[in-house]
Amino acid sequence: MSYPPQGGYPPYGGQQQGYGQPPPGQYPPQGYPPQQQGYGAPPPQPYGQQQGYPPQGQYPPQQQHGGYPPQQQHAYPPQQQPPYGAPSHSPYPPQQQPYGAPPGPHGPPPGQYGAPPPHSPQPGYGAPPPSHSPQPYGPPQHGQYGAQPSAPYGAPPPQPYGAPPAMPTPPSPGYASNHAVQYDASMRADELRRAMKGFGTDESTLIRTLAHIPAVEIPCLKTTYQQRHNRSLEKDIASETSRYFEDCLLSILRGPLQQDIWCLNHALHGPGTRESWLNDVLIGRSNADMHAIKQAYQQTYRRSLEADVRGDLSAKTERMFMMLLAGTRQEDSAPVLPQNVDADVAELHRATEGRVGTEQLTVCSILSSRSDGQIRAIALAYEAKYHKSLEKVLDAEFAGHMEQALVQMVRCGKDRAMRDAERLEDCMRGAGTKDERLVAIIVALHWDRAHMSQVRGAYKHRFRTDLTTRIRQETSGDYQRCLIAMIE
């Protein structure tokens, strides 16, 4: 039996199965509890009757060509999947493998999560690791003679001795200056100008032209519009539209990176701190994206993002966000080793339920520095060992903004699509709709069509209604039509 893969990109332009569905004619992999039981699939086997560990993020396996599969796989994939059974319409590869997809032709490299070490048997799950086991990440065991001093909070964990370094995750599309593509945008630019020229505005043309434009094409479109018509596209949009419809179009035209720093500036300035906006932008980001965000914020506002965050937050919540902003979390290609998962689980329990009071910074340090796959493995192992979900422990031991941020980290690792579906519902739940945040979240998600499809599937599973139907209930007019165009 082949082991499930650690992760990686699917073949470019490949097809995937629908949300939570196993591929036709295939059985789900026989791994450690999967990231998420396929929606509508039979319940998982009881703990202890399954073998191995799950894939890091249920990513589609890459074709290997014999030999030792390298750890340097394509790093941080975009955060989305197309519906299972439908081809992807995104120009970028999706993040996650279809739930229940079969493992690849090769198992993971020896010593990776789900595979035994090359020269010694793997200790039973939950058993303490042998004293000679490497500890590539995680705090040293308390009382261990000769343990090295703890690294500063947010510092990158060391790699196991002799292990190849993890492949750095590249920036997401639109987060590097060399991502912009040059193409003939004259037809689009002229179409937009005709829609806004003269008496009245053709809102349908604005929506049709801008709702699905890829992030990497936006700079060329704005430059072409300026050159052909000697006008700013963003200023024309602002003068011809209003309210939340204007917010939608301007958020698209900023592109993903500039929109992120606009949201951060919006969260940190004005009356109070919009804590949920900070969480939306900063939690679950790759190191490359985090560094791009900090650099763009500095260049745009002539201020350090860290300094602005320190000015609005305080005490341990401030220190937690400094860990996030350091941009030193484990890369997505880093191995997920069972002995280190067990060490993190034990340390999290010791810092929360296992003592009077809570060692808050210990918990923050672990969750802010682990990759999504490692957090997912930690959450599954914690519940299996202590019969209580890690989210419930965080709810009981923390409060306020720190609690919200830590819970978001765990949800992001366990199931990013479901986490995003719950964020959308949070914007529409209760009296009044949080329209500004709803716009910001949908614009951020719509850059990857595959992931948006996954979010829609997760939303329907969780809330028993279509996301489109829910948005129609909460919005109206051109604003509503623009949102729906982005999610469909």
Low-confidence stretches: 1-17, 21-156
Number of helices: 19
User: In sequence order, what are the helices and strands, one letter per element?
Assistant: EEHHHHHHHHHHHHHHHHHHH
Q: Into which percent range does the helicity of residues fall?
A: 40-55%
Structural class computed from helices and strand pairing: mainly alpha
How can the largest sheet be summarized?
A: 2 strands, antiparallel
Total strand count, please?
2
Strand content: under 5%
Instruction: Compute the CA-based radius of gyration.
Output: 23 Å
Distance between the termini: 39 Å
So what's the overall shape? globular
Strand order of the largest sheet: 1-2
Mean pLDDT figure: 77
Give an overview in words.
This protein has 488 residues and is an all-alpha fold. It contains 19 helices and two strands. Helix 5 crosses helix 19 (477-487). Residues 1-17 and 21-156 have low confidence and may be disordered.
Which key features would you list for this structure?
2 strands; mainly alpha; disordered N terminus; single chain; 19 helices; 488 residues
